[in-house]
Amino acid sequence: MTPVLAVAEKSIKSATANKINIFLMVKKKIILTGITASPGNAFGKVRIVKTSGEILKIKKEEIVVAPFLTPEAVVLLRKNRKIKGIITDRGGSTSHAAILAREFGIPYIAGTGTASKKLKNNTAVNLDGGTGTVYEV
Amino acid sequence: MKYKKIESIKKIKKYGLPFPETIFIFDFKKQEEAIDRFLKNREYVAIRTDSAKNTDFLPYNLRCHKKKAKKTIKKFNDEGYAVILHEQNHIPSGVINKNHISGNIVILEKCWIIELMRGEPLSSLTRKGEISEYLKIRKNNLTEVAHWGKRIISRDILDKILRMIRKIPKHKVIEFTFRPEGFYFWQIREDKTAKKLDK
Fold this sequence. Notes:
The complex is a heterodimer of chains A (137) and B (199).
Chain A: H1 3-27, E1 30-33, E2 35-38, E3 41-48, H2 54-57, E4 62-66, H3 71-77, E5 85-88, H4 96-104, E6 108-110, H5 115-118, E7 124-128, E8 133-136
Parallel strand pairs in A: 3-4, 4-5, 5-6
Antiparallel strand pairs in A: 1-8, 2-6, 3-7, 7-8
Chain B: H1 4-14, E1 22-25, H2 32-39, E2 44-50, E3 61-65, H3 66-78, E4 82-87, E5 101-107, E6 111-118, H4 123-128, E7 133-138, E8 144-149, H5 155-164, E9 172-179, E10 182-190
Antiparallel strand pairs in B: 1-4, 2-3, 2-4, 5-6, 5-9, 6-7, 7-8, 9-10
């Protein structure tokens, strides 16, 4: 390898390492914690859902944030497979919504208390359903 | 025909857990006498339903006066539901009795997950997400590995419940209520998705 290529490779490696470090640093900024309702990781933009009908309108792959998912909303979850993740203020791992999220493999954090007030539409978040943690990205 | 909820109530009997006096009604006409006997000397009953086709969001009336009970049972039967008729000796809705604690216990391979709420009915937790306390306890040494919310149950009572359910196999959910007069177990239901919580 020529010295020029070696330097280039080194700088690429360094830049990649920096990006990873930056990502990890940002990833570690916890916004919310809650109960593991369905494990798994998801990354996406927040979509605040106030009525169950809004679930059907989700076209992009987004993370649904709601006070809670009512039985009506749970039924709609079956119809919209675009949902990447779920965060709710109330609920736990034994609610109907949690069982359905696990069935569909959708990461879900319940019982965050304030997610629907604290998070805003289009905020990018990283959801770790395994630990019940929401990170800002 | 397989009625999941009715089967899950029968499992409570199998594991020797206390549960409210209950009868199952599949045919109102044929079982009218049994219904009359059940309603005798009772003021209120709890009426739940089961269906072989649909297991989600079944209709119920958890505090039904005996005068309206037969009409309600017939209506549910006519709509194609099997009826679960429970004894009812308390007020399950409208008033939160702080001495009553209801909850679900998820049995995992190495742990129990316990989710609790004050008062009854337990459907407030399952359907409305009204959860007050969440605990994860290791089965082998009863160590608490995770906790969320306010502590609403004493460790003595919780340990007693956990001892009662020790023999029940994994990936099932047990629904219960603790009242000062004792424990009531409502059903033991299958939850195949619970194994995802083992990871």
